């Protein structure tokens, strides 16, 4: 009888543990978006010239995270079938130098450096949002051209006819950032998915 009670207690504890685990969620991560648009796009003039506007990068650390210095990015481009686009030339890498303040708020945060635990009124909270001063042209012209011509590959050289065609949907880019933490460790961000959708 005692053995049965022990088994029942162990089973109940296991069920409780499983139920508790169902309530767990992944910890918050570095948030990322872009300005003035959260997607990548381009515009085509009446004579077929492609214009691509830059994007300013926007980051914010979750509550309690260390400050970060982001130094590089890697971005890959894919069509609606998740195939590389264009094939053989769908990766772009670049450098940046941007400090993302730690996940701390205070009475008077510094616009660039945010807060530290020594700041007046310091508390763990999502950090100060930082926007890159420089704009980044994340969409290569070659990807925009491929996206445009996939909309109507047999346009016969008639650019006016080409411009009237709907662009393919589902094209996207996956971007990852790397750098170092305020404690000197290496940092790799999650991979963020960006839609490719004209216009700019």
Explain how this protein is built.
The protein has three helices and twelve strands; from the N terminus they run H-E-E-E-E-E-E-E-E-E-H-H-E-E-E. With 200 residues, it is an alpha+beta fold. It has one domain. Strands 5, 6, 10, 11 and 12 form a five-stranded antiparallel sheet that branches. The radius of gyration is 24 Å and the shape is elongated. The protein starts with a helix and ends in a 5-residue tail after the last strand. Residues 1-25 have low confidence and may be disordered.
SSE sequence, one letter per element: HEEEEEEEEEHHEEE
Distance N to C terminus: 74 Å
Cα-atom Rg, whole angstroms? 24 Å
Low-pLDDT runs of 5+ residues are 1-25
Give the helix/strand class. Answer: alpha+beta
What is the tally of helical segments? 3
Number of strands: 12
Oligomer: single chain
Largest sheet: 5 strands, antiparallel
Number of spatially distinct domains: 1
- Mean pLDDT across residues: 82
Helix content: 10-25%
Beta fraction of the residues? 25-35%
- What is the overall silhouette? elongated
């Amino acid at each position: 009888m005692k053995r049965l009670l022990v088994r029942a207690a162990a089973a109940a504890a296991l069920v409780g543990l499983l139920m508790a685990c169902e309530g767990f969620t992944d910890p918050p991560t570095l948030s990322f978006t872009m300005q003035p648009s959260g997607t990548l796009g381009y515009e085509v003039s009446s004579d077929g010239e492609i214009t691509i506007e830059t994007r300013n990068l926007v980051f914010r650390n979750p509550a309690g995270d260390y400050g970060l210095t982001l130094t590089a990015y890697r971005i890959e481009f894919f069509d609606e079938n998740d195939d590389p686009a264009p094939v053989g030339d769908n990766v772009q890498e670049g450098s940046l130098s941007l400090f993302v303040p730690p996940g701390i708020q205070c009475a008077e945060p510094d616009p660039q450096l945010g807060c530290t635990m020594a700041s007046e009124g310091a508390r763990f909270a999502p950090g100060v949002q930082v926007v890159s001063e420089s704009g980044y042209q994340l969409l290569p012209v070659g990807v925009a051209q491929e996206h445009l011509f996939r909309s109507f590959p047999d346009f016969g050289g008639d650019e006016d006819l080409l411009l009237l065609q709907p662009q393919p949907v589902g094209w996207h880019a996956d971007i990852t950032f790397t750098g170092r933490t305020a404690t000197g460790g290496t940092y790799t961000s999650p991979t963020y998915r960006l839609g490719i959708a004209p216009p700019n």
